């Protein structure tokens, strides 16, 4: 896992690296600019591309000047630079790069407070106005310039952070930030990239290594950790010879109602495809024909058999499509000591009967999306605040709270907040959450501790969707296709051929 650090901690890492290695600050800027240029050249390989670089006068602006020079050295001959001289300060590295730029034929236009901005004829804009040094919302000339660039609709590639977007903390409205198509960020993605409020400011982000001291960064105190493929490889237990269905646990899915049987089937199918040795569905009897037809591998349990099931299963997933039945079923579930996943209608029941939250067994996994989360724990104005509440609740109640979104935040009982990087907008459709519940239940049934089950389940769920997009350029993926893709995604990650 990679530690996600704040803008202030990035400055610490910057200082530490400069003090403890032979690298000077200006060389670090050159590394960063070169790393930016490498990705930029992949995005815009045509060297005739007309590029406008907009620089401030701090270190983000210094990067911009170095990028202009490096592109010109690589035969990008149509590069121009704007400098926003709206403040009185100039960083040393900006000044040094300004001196280097004067030795090139690159045209430079400087703008002072109150100046009008001309049209932008270039094909692409590089945003190096302000970076992680942002310490207040944009206003005045800065805001005018950002809005001028936004209004052109030209693609923007931002250096480190789009101008106006704080690296962490509560985010400002998106009309006050530069809207970048790509952000090439240094050393670590910034925390705000994972919040939905940054969607208009960032379409894609890339992260480049600029040579900051990794060991130092990993020791910095931070609640936020980004899940990586290597975590999945470490957690996943390979299937050994001579194992059998009993080795991989028995999962019970409590789901479905007359009009929402599909949710139950999806959860059961995902459980099956995620490797549970046995899967039993507790669904209304009228769903039996559909279950037997679609999922002959899954067993059925009726109301009479339910009391005998609690001791026979290894994990329980409750909620998808459960409707009003949630109210009486949750009572039975909370009397077991089985690891469990609580989703959808079971969460709605909990939000209407909050005293039941206190009865949940320790380390139960709750999987709310934003609306379910706010119904459970109160309305929130920003994702930053919502994530802080998730952390407080997970610690206070010793629960695992999985706050679903494109980037899911996993709040653990020890106070850590994990960020899942996989998943994509093609997956934004009904049934996706039911699939996740089935997957998590399957991993719990196989004996993974809740902490490992959520990492595996979340990462694989998104990775299966990402794989489908990569393989076939699909713009929409139905939940069923994600289910079918789970075994191969797991195989590709953990059993490379
Ligand atoms: N360690 C690294 O990751 C490296 C980062 N690099 C690049 O450096 C920037 C950060 O540079 P910094 O000089 O700290 O800050 P900025 O360039 O982002 O901002 C410059 C100054 O602008 C002022 N400021 C802040 N907010 C506003 C605002 N809303 N309106 C106007 N002005 C604002 C502030 O100065 P004050 O005196 O006004 O407080 C900023 O200091 C990072 O993003 C990378 O691009 C290095 O190149 C490599 C190492
Ligand atoms: K920027």
TrEMBL record:
Metal-binding found in the keyword field: yes
- PROSITE patterns attached here? YJEF_C_2, YJEF_C_3, YJEF_N
Give residue ranges for domain YjeF C-terminal: 228-493
Signal peptide stretch: none
User: Per UniProt, where does K(+) bind?
Assistant: 60, 127, 163
Residues annotated for AMP binding in this entry: 404-408, 433
> Start and end of every YjeF N-terminal domain?
10-218
Record's keyword terms, sorted? ATP-binding, Isomerase, Lyase, Metal-binding, Multifunctional enzyme, NAD, NADP, Nucleotide-binding, Potassium
Please give the InterPro entries that the UniProt record associates with this protein: Carbohydrate_kinase_pred_CS (IPR017953), CARKD (IPR000631), Nnr (IPR030677), Ribokinase-like (IPR029056), YjeF_N_dom (IPR004443), YjeF_N_dom_sf (IPR036652)
Entry's EC annotation: 4.2.1.136, 5.1.99.6
Cofactor: bound how, per the entry note?
A: Binds 1 potassium ion per subunit.
Pfam families recorded: Carb_kinase, YjeF_N
**UniProt keyword Lyase, yes or no:** yes
| CC cofactor | Mg(2+); K(+)
- For the ligand ((6S)-NADPHX), the binding residues are 59-63, 131-137, 160, 263, 321, 369, 434
Catalytic activity as recorded in UniProt:
(6S)-NADPHX + ADP = AMP + phosphate + NADPH + H(+); (6R)-NADHX = (6S)-NADHX; (6S)-NADHX + ADP = AMP + phosphate + NADH + H(+); (6R)-NADPHX = (6S)-NADPHX
What is annotated about its quaternary structure and interactions? Homotetramer.
Entry's family note: Belongs to the NnrE/AIBP family. Belongs to the NnrD/CARKD family.
Q: What does this protein do?
A: Catalyzes the dehydration of the S-form of NAD(P)HX at the expense of ADP, which is converted to AMP. Together with NAD(P)HX epimerase, which catalyzes the epimerization of the S- and R-forms, the enzyme allows the repair of both epimers of NAD(P)HX, a damaged form of NAD(P)H that is a result of enzymatic or heat-dependent hydration. Bifunctional enzyme that catalyzes the epimerization of the S- and R-forms of NAD(P)HX and the dehydration of the S-form of NAD(P)HX at the expense of ADP, which is converted to AMP. This allows the repair of both epimers of NAD(P)HX, a damaged form of NAD(P)H that is a result of enzymatic or heat-dependent hydration.
Name listed for the protein in its UniProt record: Bifunctional NAD(P)H-hydrate repair enzyme
Q: What is the source species?
A: Parapedobacter defluvii
Q: What lineage is this protein's organism placed in?
A: Bacteria, Pseudomonadati, Bacteroidota, Sphingobacteriia, Sphingobacteriales
**Name of the coding gene:** nnrD
């Amino acid at each position: 896992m990679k530690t996600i650090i704040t803008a202030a901690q990035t400055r610490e890492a910057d200082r530490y690296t400069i003090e403890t290695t032979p690298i000077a600050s200006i060389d670090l800027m050159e590394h960063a600019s070169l790393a930016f240029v490498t990705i930029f050249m992949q995005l815009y390989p045509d060297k005739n591309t007309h590029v406008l670089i907009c620089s401030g006068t701090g270190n983000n602006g210094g990067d911009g000047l170095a990028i202009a020079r490096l592109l010109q050295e690589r035969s990008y001959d149509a590069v121009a630079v704007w400098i926003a001289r709206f403040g009185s300060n100039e960083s040393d590295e900006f000044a040094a790069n300004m001196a280097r730029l004067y030795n090139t034929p690159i045209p430079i236009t400087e703008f002072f407070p109150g100046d009008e901005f001309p049209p932008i004829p270039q094909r692409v804009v590089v945003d190096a106005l302000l970076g992680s040094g942002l310490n207040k919302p944009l206003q005045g000339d800065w805001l005018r310039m950002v809005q001028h660039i936004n209004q052109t609709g030209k693609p923007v590639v931002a250096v480190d952070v789009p101008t106006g977007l704080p690296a962490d903390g509560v985010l400002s409205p998106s009309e006050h930030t530069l809207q970048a198509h790509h952000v090439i960020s240094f050393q670590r993605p910034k925390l705000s990239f994972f919040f939905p409020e940054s969607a208009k400011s960032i379409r894609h982000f890339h992260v480049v290594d600029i040579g900051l001291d990794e060991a130092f960064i990993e020791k910095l105190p931070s609640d936020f950790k980004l899940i990586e493929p290597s975590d999945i490889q470490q957690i996943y237990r390979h299937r050994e010879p001579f194992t059998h269905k009993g080795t991989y646990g028995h999962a019970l899915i409590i789901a479905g109602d007359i009009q929402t049987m599909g949710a139950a089937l999806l959860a059961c199918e995902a459980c099956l495809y995620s490797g549970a040795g046995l899967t039993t569905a507790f669904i209304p009897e009228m769903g039996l024909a559909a279950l037997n037809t679609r999922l002959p591998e899954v067993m059925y349990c009726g109301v009479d058999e339910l009391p005998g099931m609690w001791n026979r299963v290894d994990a329980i997933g409750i909620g998808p499509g459960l409707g009003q039945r949630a109210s009486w079923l949750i009572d039975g579930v909370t009397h077991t000591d089985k690891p469990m996943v609580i989703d959808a209608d079971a969460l709605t029941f909990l939000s209407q009967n909050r005293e039941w939250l206190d009865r949940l067994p320790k380390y139960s996994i709750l999987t709310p999306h934003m609306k379910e989360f706010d119904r459970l724990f109160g309305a929130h104005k920003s994702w930053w605040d919502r994530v802080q509440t998730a952390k407080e609740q997970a610690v206070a109640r010793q629960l695992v709270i999985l706050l679903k979104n494109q980037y899911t935040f996993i709040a653990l009982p020890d106070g850590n907040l994990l960020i899942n990087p996989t998943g994509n907008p093609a997956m934004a459709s009904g049934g996706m959450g039911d699939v996740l519940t089935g997957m998590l239940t399957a991993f719990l049934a196989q004996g993974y501790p809740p902490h490992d089950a959520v990492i595996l389940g979340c990462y694989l769920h998104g990775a299966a969707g990402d794989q489908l997009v990569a393989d076939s350029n699909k713009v929409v993926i139905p939940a069923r296709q994600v289910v079918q893709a789970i075994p191969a995604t797991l195989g590709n990650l953990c059993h490379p051929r």
